[in-house]
Amino acid sequence: MPVVVIHREGQTHQGEVKDNSNLVVMAGIRQFPHPHLRYGCGMGKCCRCASRVLKGAEHLPEPNWKEKKQLGPRLDEGYRLICQLWITHDLELEQDKTPLTPAAAAGA
Ligand code: FES
Predict the structure, then answer these.
(1) Burial of 37 (0-12, 13-18, 19+ CB in 10 A)
(2) Atom of ligand 1 nearest to the CA of 40
């Protein structure tokens, strides 16, 4: 089972999830990573779930069109929309203190 590590606001949280889990869906049903993952719409629109992937990015699929639209150049900095990912391997990520603004809203 994949092990997920989340860094947020100076704290580190670690847990196992079932193979092929969506972390926003899991948090939504109050399982790990609840309550440590910040998220919102679950549909790739709000950017509240955006996280910088520290380890395991090589196992993730290519960003989909929603991630490209919302994250723009921040994809190159390692950011992904966690609600758009199904986790099959260990993953370590960090959420900024302040949620990202969607690139579309920022005019990028
Ligand atoms: S939860 Fe809104 S973009 Fe991921």
Answers:
(1) buried
(2) 1
CA dihedral (41, 46, 47, 49) in degrees, to 10, reads -20
User: Whole domain around residue 90: which residue ranges?
Assistant: 3-96
The answer to whether position 106 is within a domain reads no
pTM of the prediction?
0.94
CATH number (domain holding residue 53): 3.10.20.30
Q: Is the minimum distance from the CB of 49 to ligand 1 under 6 angstroms?
A: yes
pLDDT, position 1: 95
| pLDDT, mean of each 10-residue run, the chain (108 residues) | 97 97 98 98 96 98 97 96 98 94 72
Decide if 105 is inside a domain.
Answer: no
Q: How many domains does the chain have?
A: 1
